[in-house]
Design a protein that fits this description.
8 strands; 368 residues; 3 domains; Nucleotidyltransferase, domain 5; 15 helices; alpha/beta; three-stranded antiparallel beta sheet
Amino acid sequence: SCPCGKRLRAVYDRRRRRWRHLDLGRYRLWLVYDIRRVNCPDCGVRTEELPWARPGARHTRDFEDMVLWLAQRTDRTSVSTLMRCAWETVTSIINRGVAELLDRRRLTTLYRIGVDEICYRHPHKYLTIIGDHDTSTVIDVQPGRSEESLATFYEQQPDSTLETIQAVSMDASKAFRAATRTHLPDVIICFDPFHIMQWVNRALDRVFADAAAGPNKVTMTSAQWRQTRWALRTGENKLKDDKRQLVNQIARANRRVGRAWTLKEQLRDLYRFEHEPGVARQLLKAWITAAKRSRIPSFTELGKRLQEHFEAVIAAVELGISNALIEGINAKIRLINARGYGHHSARTLTSMIYLCLGGLHPQLPTRT
C-alpha cells in the first residue's frame, strides 16, 4: 500500500532490504524482505509502508521500541552496549521515535502553562522550556531564551489553541513578558513566588550587610554572622530555638534588620496561607505601602518594583500558580544532561526531553 493509504496492485520495482531485529540469545537477527515501490496516481512513485518498521528505518519497530524504553531510563552509551548497535544509531532511533509518538493533541487543550529557561551547555547555550501545569509535562522546547524563542512557540500554535490559554507563569524575564503580551494580550501573567522571595532576600541581605559593616556594627564572631545570615533567610516557622535566638539578637541590636526581617516574613505569609477573595490584594497593597515607608532603601526600592508588577505578583497568589513545576522539570533535564555526559546539539537534548518528560510511553515489545 502507498503511504497515502491507497492499496495498489501494480508494482513499480523491488529492492532487497534488511532490518535489524531483537537479538536471538547471543546471535544478531535480521529480517530480509524485497520491499516494493508502487506507482500511485496521486503521490507518484513511493515506497510501500511496512507494518514491522517505521518509514526510513533499518531496524524493526520491536528493536526501536526496546531502545526507546531503555533510553528513558539510562544513558545512550549503555543502551548501545546492551543492544549491540552504534551510539549514533540510538540517537537516530530516539529522534525518529519521538517524531512519531509526540502527539499534536497535547497542544489543543492548554489552559495554564509555565515558561522558564535552562542552560544546557556552557558558555551560554540555553533552551526555553514550556510546560503544562495540568498534565505536568513538557509541551514544547525552543532554542535560546530570548523574546523570539517564546514568540516562535506562540506563532506555531493556531488561534484556537491560543484562545484557550488563561494563565502563563514565569519569572520576571522581560523577554518572556514581551512575547506573551504581544501574542496573548488578554492572558494572566503570574510571577513565580520563589523569584519574588529571592528579591526580598536580596533586599534583606543588603540590610544585613550594612549592619555587619556600618558605623553601628553589631559585635559578633564570624561564625555567628554566617549563622545569623542563614537564620534570617529561613522561614520563621522553620527556625530552631538556637537560630531564633540569633534572629532576636540581631533584631534587638539593629532595628533596621529586625524591621526588614518582619517585612520578609509578612510577604512570605502572603504566599503560605490561603486568603478570601480580595483579601490578598489588600494585604499586598498594605505590604507595599509599609515597605515604601520603612526608610530602608532596599525595601523602598522593592516596594516600588512590586507595585509596578502588582497584577503579575497577585495573580500567582489568587490562582495558586507557581513555576515549581517548571523548576522541577529543569532539575530532571539537568539529570538527563548529566546522565548523557552533555549533549552537543540542542536537537539531541530536545528529543531526550520529549522522550523522558513529554508524556511519551513507549511500550516494551513483550507487552504489545
